[in-house]
Write a structure and sequence with these properties.
Strand content: 15-25%
CATH architecture: 3-Layer(aba) Sandwich
Strand order of the largest sheet: 1-2-4-3-5-6-8-9
Largest sheet: 8 strands, mixed
Helix content: 25-40%
CATH superfamily: Alpha/Beta hydrolase fold, catalytic domain
Oligomer: single chain
Order of helices and strands: HHEEEHEHHEHHEEEHEEEEHEH
Shape: globular
CATH topology: Rossmann fold
Number of domains: 1
Structural class: alpha/beta
Number of strands: 13
Number of helices: 10
Length: 354
């Protein structure tokens, strides 16, 4: 009888135990994330999954000529505990126009894995080297919509794994990828790329230029976090406030964190301020209900690389913007991001985090 009671108790407690967060997740909301030797041995495994290359949202549902198949690639960082009996939450990380960076996406990936969260670092440029190589050509030929297609392909890939909790997958984008994360929050995008109803549990945009606004403001309902620096000339605060208001009107909670002394890419490894020569903060796009992207100033529709080049030529300026890493600000943004993810994934917040 006693053995039966122990078996019954174990059967009751085991499912609950599997839902407990990784012990290291207590560090999520403090900003004191593992680094150095604590993460150096964590390796990402290369993965591939099928995506598409739609030039604009309008092209998502079009034929192969406008929406060719792309074999997207990435690196997957898994916590040791991840298994079919212990499914873990995950984040998809999408880079900026400079591509995947060791000090940013790959470091975040290792940190998340050390804290019990799987991380998929998507490389949208690797499979599209035939379209562009340099920084400027990437902006012209590899669009934010292509990045969105890849992150939804990554979402499907993770959801199909037996060791990932498909209901707890968040999207985090940096700069150009921050634009993609904001695009991906809109329901007209989500239903086109995931018509079966799969959605990200939350969206984060690190210093993403607030270029586009959607005529159809409806979001997936997932919460949204925007972070940017007060010294970042790539950010137009008034335009970003309009985007935040659109998102709230569309059905999502939208939070903002501004770091007054931060430049663009404060979480990068480049310590000293450095100027980047092109600035698209003055660009203004509107995405129609049909997915057509139009420049709000010239009213020119974005139909392909030629019209995109003309539109950007009219709004991109030469005054540039400054980038520079700041480890103190990174710890602050880690804490804000950590609290966002802790709430999203159902992890307890520590007393220190509030």
């Amino acid at each position: 009888m006693r053995h039966f009671l122990w078996i019954l108790l174990a059967a009751f407690l085991l499912p609950a135990a599997l839902l407990l967060p990784h012990p290291a997740t207590a560090r999520l909301a403090t900003g004191d994330w593992p680094e150095g030797a604590a993460i150096s041995a964590i390796d990402g495994q290369p993965v591939q999954f099928e995506s598409r290359s739609p030039f604009t949202p309008r092209d998502i549902g079009q034929g192969a000529a406008r929406n060719p198949v792309t074999l997207a690639s990435g690196q997957l960082f898994l916590p040791e505990r991840a298994s079919s009996r212990d499914r873990v939450p995950a984040v998809v990380l999408i880079h900026g126009a400079g591509g995947v960076r060791y000090g940013r996406e790959l470091t975040y990936g290792r940190q998340f894995a050390a804290m019990g969260i799987a991380a998929l670092v998507v490389d949208a440029f690797a499979a599209r080297r035939d379209l562009a190589g340099g920084f400027t050509e990437r902006l012209l030929n590899i669009t934010e919509t292509m990045l969105v297609s890849d992150v939804y392909a990554g979402l499907h890939y993770l959801a199909g794994r037996g060791d990932i909790d498909k209901d707890r997958i968040a999207l985090i984008g940096f700069s150009y990828g921050g634009m993609a994360s904001t695009y991906a929050l809109h329901e007209q995008i989500a239903k086109s790329l995931a018509p079966e109803g799969l959605r990200f549990a939350g969206h984060v945009a690190f210093y993403g230029p607030c270029v586009a606004r959607f005529a159809d403001k409806r979001t997936t309902g997932a919460p949204y976090l925007m972070l940017y620096g007060g010294q970042d000339a790539l950010i137009d605060p008034e335009r970003c406030q309009e985007v935040l208001e659109d998102i709230r009107a569309g059905g999502s909670r939208a939070d903002l964190a501004v770091y007054d002394e931060a430049y663009h890419l404060w979480d990068g490894s480049w310590r000293g301020p450095r100027r980047i020569s092109r600035n698209l903060a003055d660009c203004r796009f509107e995405v129609s209900e049909s997915g057509l992207v139009r420049d709000q100033r010239t009213l020119m529709p974005m139909l392909g690389p030629i019209t995109r080049r003309l539109i950007l030529a009219a709004c991109v300026t030469d005054d540039g913007y400054m980038i520079g890493g700041d480890p103190d600000i990174r710890r602050l943004s880690n804490a804000v991001l950590g609290r966002f993810l802790a709430r999203l994934f159902g992890f307890p917040l520590t007393a220190e985090a509030g």
